[in-house]
Every structure is written in C-alpha cells, then in structure tokens.
Predict the 3D structure of the following.
Amino acid sequence: MSHYESPIRKPLVTGDKSYHDVTLDVVRPVEGKANKSWWVVFSIALIAFLWGLGCIIYTVSEGIGVWGLNKTVGWAWDITNFVWWVGIGHAGTLISAVLLLFRQKWRMAINRSAEAMTIFSVIQAGLFPIIHMGRPWLAFWVLPIPNQFGSLWVNFNSPLLWDVFAISTYLSVSLVFWWTGLLPDFAMIRDRAVKPFQKHIYGILSFGWSGRAKDWQRFEEVSLVLAGLATPLVLSVHTIVSFDFATSVIPGWHTTIFPPYFVAGAVFSGFAMVNTLLIIMRKVSSLENYITIQHIELMNIVIMITGSIVGVAYITELFMAWYSGVEYEQYAFLNRATGPYWWAYWAMMTCNVFSPQFMWFPRLRRSIMFSFFISIVVNIGMWFERFVIIVTSLHRDYMPSAWTMFSPTFVDIGIFIGTIGFFFVLFLLYARTFPVIAQAEVKSILKSSGEKYKKIRAEKGEDAKLYDEPEQEPLPDFSAQFNSKSNS
Amino acid sequence: MASKVLHAIFTDDDILMQAVKALREKKYSIDEVFCPFPVHGLDKAMGLPHTRLAITSFLYGLVGLAVATWMMNFMMIEDWPQNIGGKPSFSYLENMPAFVPIMFEMTVFFAAHLMVITFYMRSKLWPFKKAENPDVRTTDDKFLMEISVNENNVQAIAEVLHENGASEIKLIDNK
C-alpha cells in the first residue's frame, strides 16, 4: 500500500490525528452545546434578517418607489447586491469543483463550508431580482410557460432570461453536489447519535447511506463528473451575469472584457468571504488542525492573483475607453475616476487592486489577523466595484438634462443588511448542525497528508507500516457453530 | 436452511486491502465491504465492474441539449415569432447565438440532476431509507467485510481473515 506524498509537502492535517480523531473533531460542534458567543452573533444576525424582512415587506406593499431609484438611475443598489452575492458564491464551486479537477487536496478541509457559503449567498442573490419585480408573486412569469391570453412565451434573446436559467441551474446543481458529499458525513453523525430524535433526523438527512464499496465507487465517479460539469457552469454563470450589462449599449457596460473580468472578480470576492468565515470558524469550532495556516496562505495567494487579474481588467477598460475614440465611452471612465463618484472608484481601486498586493509578503499572508482584515477590505471593495460599474454608467447618460445622482434610502440599506443577516443566520445554523468538514474525504488523505503518518514515513522509510497491529479476538470454531440453531 | 455470512471487522484500510487480496487469490468472492471513506483500489481488488454513471451523464446531457433546442425553436421560431429590437426570429440557426447560453445551461442541468438521481436510485439512497451497514462503527473508523459461507468452507475462510488481521469475526444468519 503506497500512501506516498513528497516529504517536502507540508502536512494538510496537523496533530497526531487518527481516523477516529477526525470523527470526534468533526462531530464536536454538532454534539456539543452552543456557547454564549454563538447565541450573541446569531441574535444579531436574526435581528438584521428580521429588519431586512420588514424592509422587503414595506417595498412590496408600497412599491419600488421607496427605493432611491429615479428615472435616470433605474438599476442601482439592488442589482449591486445581486451581483455581489452571486460573485461571493463562486468561490465555493471553485474550491469544490475546479480544485478537485486539479487534484488540489487542500480543498478537502474547506470545500464543505465554501459550498455552504455558495448556496446561502446564491439564495441572497436570488432575492433581489424577485423583489425588484415589484410584484414578486408573478415571479413565475420568468418560466417558459405561455401567458393566460395565448401562447406568448418568454424572450429567449434576453440576457435577463439567460440569468434565470443560469442562476437556477447553478443553485440546484451546487445543492445536489453539496448534499451528495454530505451523505457519508450525515451517516457518521447518525451512527454516533445517542438520542433517538437526532438519530432519526440524521437518518433522514443521510438518505440511508451505508458505505458499500460499490456506493463509494459511484460516489467518487459522481463527484468527479459533477466537478467536471460545475466547472464550466460556474464560469458560465458569472459570464451570463456580466451579459446583463455587456449586451446593452450603455457606455462603461458595453465591453467584451466583461465575462472574464466578472469571473475573476467573483472568485476574488468569494475567496475573501471564505477566508472571513473560516478564520472565525476554525477558532470557534477548534478546527485549527484541519484548516491550517497553510490553507489560509493558499487562499491568500488566490486572492492576490485574482485581485491582480481584476486590476489588469480595470486598466484594460481605461485603455480601451481611450483607444476606442468614442467620446461617450471616454467620458464614462473619466467620470468614474474624477466625477462625483470618484470616492467609490478609488475605494474600489484601493481595496481590490492595492490591498491584495500585501499578500506577496509571506509574513503577511501567514498572519491570521491580517488575512482577516484584508478579506473584509476585499469584500467591501468588490461591493464598490459593482456599485461603480452600475451607478456611474447610468447617472450621467446621453442626455445631460437627465443627469442626476443616486442615493439609497433606508429601505435599500435595510434590505442589504437583511440579506447579510439572513446569510449569517443560515451559516450559523449550518455550523452547529452540519458536519463542517468533509470528514470522509479528509480520512481518505490522512495517511498521505496527515502529520502523524508523514512522521512515521520520515522515521521508518516509505514502506513503513502505517497502522498499529490489530488486537485480534481468538478464532472460534465456526464449523461447529454453523449448524447450531440460532446465532444472530 | 438459511444461508450464513461471515462478518469480519478490520481496523485499518491497509489491513483490509491485504485481506481482500488474500481472499481473492484463493478465489473466494467477497459479498460486500462497508467503509467509512473511499479506499483507493478497493473496487478493483474486490473485482467490482466499472460504474457507468459517467456515460449516463453524457447521454442525459445530450437529452438536455435536445430539449433546450426543441423548446426554444418551438417557442421563439414556430409558435410565436417576435421581432425584438430589430432582430426578427427567422430561423433557429440564424438566431442561435442568442440561444447558446440556455442550450448550455440545460445540458448541464439535465446531465447533473439525472445522473445524481440515477446514482441515488442505483445505490438505493433516498430520504427515509433505512441504513444497511451492519455495524455503526463502519461510518467512523472500522471496515466490515461480508462473505457468504457454507458448512464446508466457513472455517477455511475464517482462517484467511484471521491470518490477515481481522480483529473480530462473526457468523451471522443472512436475512
């Protein structure tokens, strides 16, 4: 049996962990009781969520007029939030699918939570277009069904309809990918559960997973194929989100660079959010041996690279605006950088292009506090990016007499805060009830990448036995037992 | 007479693999192995055939592509052609660039969901399904091998298991 991995690679699981230790570490938050700080954070998130819910109800009952939109700026805060949340979701799929295809084993400690983040943030994203419809009970009109007067169908030429298909495919495929991976881990909690109620609940959630060799063979095949499908899917989703803008004829939106630029930005903001969540979670749930400094460092490197790609995209946009010779295009970018929204533009530039460059320094990218700080900065910066793209392109349009400014009302802000609250409510509940680490997968790499086994191989050579000799029960006489009446 | 099986518990995946290989060498067939995580090479060592789920996924993807093409052709070209933004719906081929995103999305949608449903049906996984692993430790850190035996070979098989490191061996009535 070879569990070879180059000895110069740092262990992915630190501490002397055996298979059983992995089980204990993963179920601890589920079987234990929530502490005070969990309740405090949960209460705050719940209040924010309820406040947002109130603002949504107010919007729906009064109409979109309660938002800060006007006749010039018809898209602003809500669509900014939509794109921001969709973008955050992308890191989960990137970690679970793209890194699976590239055989990056460090994904195993973080993929479960990153995918949870994907699903919870896509839920937030989906709320905004539905609320913006004004009459959300007619949201089913986006489905390809004929209207009541005859067979007038939806418009398949519209990027907004492409978005409906892209986001719903993305949400549902991410959900089954996540749930399929969860089955063996739910089964583990089910089989440990002492209280009948919990045993029953986790029994339902685990779909009766038994862990047969054939099940595992199919499980691995399905995971691989889903990763292969999710990879182009995740790229297509943000590509299509960028088409919402790029297929229009608005200066500042109508550019071919949008799809790759949006995808890089999505990965960038998503990894920042993963860092924000996991730096807290590893501490609160005592998972420092699984989500190690090395994991945080690798995520910081992804943030640095994607941040730099986003920076190149910003500069390319400026260059193309100048090089195109189109005065409207040139003015749109001049107005972004020096117009009344200059502060938003420079906040975006500072947060997204400048701040990730600190990650070139190993000392900084291995610092927990600094990584956390930068992850927050990047999240803010990416929100401003979408705000800048959307609002500055609209507020000074082709007709100077219509030029105006956008300022959000308390309802705009309230709904945004509400979605942050809703997101954290879901994530906090997840952290207490779900196996937050894909423990079955981690166990499968424990012998190749666990510190304990790496040490044994370093001391005793690559062919060393990586197990303790089992304590064997004496062999009974089965031939005699065979015909005896009952032996259950 | 009810048939009987041996249940052997192993404490490590490497020991399990040795035992599987030893049994296969002696031409005994292994009914089932329950594992807490995917053990690499186990399916091959047990002699399990390849899974064809990836092929089904490809076929489902083709179905999705066909459904998307049929749907958009019917709705946009045949049933109610519209002239939207000066881009009239003359034929599917001429309008196809605008249809590519949804053709792709539906391909992925069908390929992913129908494959997962096939997996759940084939492996008998659904809500309220009762788990069938005989020992609860097999989702934690133990491995359980199930082999059907008869009066004549039971002791020989048990000895192979014992020699290859099974920590517990039990004779069970097969239900």
In short: The domain at 4-36+141-173 of chain B is CATH 3.30.70.120 (Alpha-Beta Plaits). The longest strand of chain B covers residues 4-10.
